[in-house]
Design a protein that fits this description.
Blueprint: H1 6-26, E1 31-32, E2 36-37, H2 40-58, H3 63-79, H4 85-93, H5 97-114
Antiparallel strand pairs: 1-2
Helix pairs in contact: 1-2, 3-5
Length: about 120
């Protein structure tokens, strides 16, 4: 079943640019956009995810990417609030609560756009 559509392709490109900018900025700063914490490992991950999102979105093949990204972001966001894993995520990726909440929100949106159907389209 094809899970790529215009909505997740556009979303993938827009989110890809955001991640790319955040990642490049994060290579030289521990805080981006005034409230999102990061470090070099976190920044490189965002650069790679951003580039993938842009390429797959432009190729109109972003369904799998949005699914993967949605699951990844929700998982990382939730784990930031679990005692024990929170310390590990802060140490490894410098994730603050704002980043965790944003991850959860963007993760839910990523999964939602995968299943978007235009009015009148058949649902599989």
């Amino acid at each position: 079943m094809k899970r790529s559509n215009i909505v997740n392709s556009v979303f993938s490109v827009i989110l890809g640019f955001f991640l790319l900018v955040e990642g490049i900025w994060g290579l030289s700063s521990d805080v981006v956009f005034g409230f999102l914490t990061t470090n070099n490992i976190h920044a490189v991950i965002h650069i790679l995810l951003g580039a993938a999102g842009i390429v797959l979105g432009l190729k109109q093949n972003a369904g799998g990417f949005c699914t993967f990204l949605g699951i990844l972001l929700i998982l990382v966001g939730i784990l930031r609030f679990v005692p024990g894993t929170d310390v590990l995520l802060v140490k490894m990726l410098n994730i603050n609560e704002a980043v965790a909440y944003l991850n959860i929100i963007v993760g839910v949106i990523s999964l939602t756009v995968v299943y978007y159907k235009r009015p009148g389209e058949l649902r599989n």
